[in-house]
């Protein structure tokens, strides 16, 4: 007589698998829609937090399933293991954001020059929805100084045009898209190569003095005077400002950046200002973007960096 042993099935383990897969799938869709689609950052934050709810529920059910596997050999051990794996994705993102929120100062705008921060060429505007944030104050600058004492500008012993060229190159290489700039005329090299002169008629054997003239300019009507538009004041001599936008690689969080170059005697001073577009807290990402850019600029201008 053959005895057949029927293993019990842990329903908790399979329920945990469903909850874990659901939470991970919601998070993946939300991240893709925010990184490459129309989903705004406030909606991304809210939906990411909601995705962590089923993931958090999957953890105790998965532990119960593993306990049943250990005690009575119930089916569902593999499902419980996968449930824990899927649950770590939304829970890990939420935990990382919560740790950054508590560990970093509550600021969203950082600048390498705390006394005279670079001003925006185009004031960043965005619909904050439920992520209200206070204005930048002297207290927020003091918080930055205490939290990031090593975040300062750079002084390079080089001409403004050379540093400007390096800044544009590093910005392109690091995903900073320049949307506005002023004062770039000060970054034109002092000596420009002259264009070759037109050949003299005497040196041209095919020149016909009786031929009809070529390229005669056609007179155009004088344009009507335009009404004066509201413009920003001109940049001080030797000052260049560039404004750019960028996104973080994985999550696509948007940031606005302004870079200021000032020529002083025989050196060029570079300052950065980085602000998150949404929310009252940048989770410390703004300073990381600025320091990464400055380190890349140091490498590009290796040999002429000063204190």
UniProtKB/TrEMBL annotation:
Record's keyword terms, sorted: Membrane, Transmembrane, Transmembrane helix
Residue ranges of the region described as Disordered: 195-236
Domain of life: Bacteria
Annotated InterPro entries: DUF1499
Protein name per its UniProtKB record: DUF1499 domain-containing protein
Ranges annotated as spanning the membrane: 12-32, 44-66, 78-99
């Amino acid at each position: 007589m053959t005895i057949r042993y029927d293993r019990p099935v842990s329903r908790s383990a399979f329920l945990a698998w469903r909850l874990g897969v659901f939470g991970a799938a919601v998070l993946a869709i939300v991240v893709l829609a925010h990184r490459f689609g129309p989903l705004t950052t406030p909606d991304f934050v809210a939906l990411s937090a909601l995705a962590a709810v089923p993931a958090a529920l999957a953890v105790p059910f998965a532990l119960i399933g593993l306990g049943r596997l250990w005690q009575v050999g119930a089916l569902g051990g593999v499902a419980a293991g996968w449930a824990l794996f899927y649950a770590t994705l939304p829970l890990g993102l939420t935990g990382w954001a919560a740790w950054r929120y508590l560990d970093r100062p509550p600021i969203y705008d950082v600048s390498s020059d705390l006394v005279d921060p670079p001003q925006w060429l185009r004031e960043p505007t965005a619909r904050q929805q439920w992520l209200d944030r206070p204005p930048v104050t002297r207290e927020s600058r003091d918080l930055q100084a205490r939290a990031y004492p090593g975040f300062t500008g750079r002084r390079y012993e080089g001409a403004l045009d050379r540093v400007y060229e390096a800044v544009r190159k590093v910005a392109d290489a690091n995903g900073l898209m320049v949307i506005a700039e002023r004062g770039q005329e000060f970054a034109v090299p002092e000596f420009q190569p002259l264009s070759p002169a037109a050949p003299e008629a005497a040196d041209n054997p095919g020149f016909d003095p009786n031929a009809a003239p070529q390229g005669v300019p056609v007179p155009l009507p004088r344009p009507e005077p335009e009404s004066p538009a509201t413009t920003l004041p001109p940049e001080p001599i030797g000052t260049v400002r560039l404004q750019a936008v960028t996104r973080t690689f994985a999550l696509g969080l948007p940031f606005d950046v302004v870079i200021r170059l000032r020529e002083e005697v025989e050196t060029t001073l570079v300052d950065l200002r980085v602000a998150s577009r949404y929310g009252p807290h940048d989770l410390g990402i703004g300073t990381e973007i600025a320091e990464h850019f400055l380190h890349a600029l140091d490498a590009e201008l290796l040999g002429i960096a000063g204190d």
